[in-house]
């Protein structure tokens, strides 16, 4: 049976999430409901017992694609452009003066292409490229030119405020709009940690975006995770784990290993 309408016999199976659908309409509905792009995940885990020659061939082609992407990025003219390097240096320098460790990626990485963060020298403030992730509803939104003096509560108001939010967004995020504002928790992943030790910082919704980013490492642009305290989440907040102190102590090890791996996958 179709897993979307539960009425007709299924004819298609999504390469991404493996859900069955009976028609194009149901395919579109399931993509919208689950934020599924329908593209097969080339990096999905396959156990040794299920590993076949097709999986081996897929991995080989994936590595070839990665090599071509890296080579094309190295040959990109903007890599050797003095203007590009100067602008990135100025942006990182301005962030450092605000006590923000801003790090940029090489040309070819997805986040590097997406990033639209700028610094206005006249107003003396950042306009950030920002991504909001609502994991309980499988929804993501990208914001551009967000002023750094805007509070997080003001940024989230068009999305989770039951009165001021857009009707379409409100319907999709009804789990958030129906919950009291006191249950909303804003988290940001701590970079420069080991892959088996992922932790998040809790941000203050009443403070500005700039104040919340101070003292933190940002890879290209901030990504904020909006979660509900009443729902179980596997996101461990630093300081709430009994095994760790509340201080923001970045562990040693490869600073960009996990991030680079994910970005290389995205860039292909």
Automatic annotation (TrEMBL):
Pfam families: BCD1, zf-HIT. SUPFAM superfamilies: HIT/MYND zinc finger-like. One of its GO terms (cellular component) is pre-snoRNP complex. Residues 243-268 are annotated as: Disordered. InterPro entries: BCD1, BCD1_alpha/beta, Znf_HIT. GO terms for molecular function: zinc ion binding. Required for box C/D snoRNAs accumulation involved in snoRNA processing, snoRNA transport to the nucleolus and ribosome biogenesis. Interacts with FBL, SNU13, NOP58, NUFIP1, RUVBL1, RUVBL2 and TAF9. Interacts (via HIT-type zinc finger) with the RUVBL1/RUVBL2 complex in the presence of ADP. This is Box C/D snoRNA protein 1. It comes from Mesitornis unicolor (brown roatelo).
